[in-house]
Amino acid sequence: MTDNTLLQIRNVSKCYSGLGESRAVLRDVSLDLQAGKSIALTGESGSGKSTLLHLVGALDYYDSGEIKIAGTNLTNLNDSARSELRRNTVSLVFQQFNLVPSLNVAQNISLHARLANRVDQTWITSLTSRLGLTELSDRYPEQLSGGQQQRVAIGRALAVRPKLLLADEPTGNLDEVTSTAVMDLMLNLVHESGAALFLVTHSVQVANQLDRRVHLSAGKIA
Ligand SMILES: Nc1ncnc2c1ncn2[C@@H]1O[C@H](COP(=O)(O)OP(=O)(O)OP(=O)(O)O)[C@@H](O)[C@H]1O
């Protein structure tokens, strides 16, 4: 582990059990991600990509191994410490944009920053403008296109200036042209904010835009 290692995954394994059987979904997965760098996680459907992302986002629990984020060990971390990590250090962008329908664009973008009590209005105003959302600030999610909604979700995730941005197929719902534009913007903003990016994608084109590509095959890093 080097000094600027932000995410350290060591020998992580996870099984899902049900109907009397237990199935290994992740086996002995290890990787490091440095601050300011990006990794694309690729692999066939069912290879365990989302499961790994959820473990890193402290949304689920591993059976063995260890995950550390910015020096914090997720093993045995209690629920309130997990929530705090998700509020202050890690942000998530999903394929489904998960915007709050009753809040307008400006309110959605600043939502998590407000909840974390970390509103930096200069950064939020700049983010909103860079994302091309200034003119749309008063609109509600249902009045936006898919690409616009995803840009709001990216703005909301970056508004808190997370150390680690997790993204699960963030452009999976968008057409190719919109996807490329949204990805370019997201990568620029991630780079500018100094965050590390851990992104799940099926797209080789998207993966090639990141610093490194890690391939999962049947729960193991290939
Ligand atoms: N809650 C769960 N209970 C039982 N099995 C699960 C659960 N969640 C996922 N799985 C199984 O674990 C395996 C890995 O799922 P995961 O969603 O991580 O794959 P993925 O690589 O992200 O797939 P995709 O690219 O299709 O989204 C799959 O076989 C899936 O059926």
UniProtKB/TrEMBL annotation:
The lineage of its organism: Bacteria, Pseudomonadati, Pseudomonadota, Alphaproteobacteria, Rhodobacterales. Keywords: ATP-binding, Nucleotide-binding, Transport. InterPro entries: AAA+_ATPase, ABC_transporter-like_ATP-bd, ABC_transporter-like_CS, ABC_transpr_LolD-like, MacB-like_ATP-bd, P-loop_NTPase. GO terms for cellular component: plasma membrane. SMART domains: AAA. SUPFAM superfamilies: P-loop containing nucleoside triphosphate hydrolases. Residues 7-222 form the ABC transporter domain. GO terms for molecular function: ATP binding; ATP hydrolysis activity; transmembrane transporter activity. Gene3D superfamilies: P-loop containing nucleotide triphosphate hydrolases. This is ATP-binding cassette domain-containing protein. The keyword Amino-acid biosynthesis does not apply.
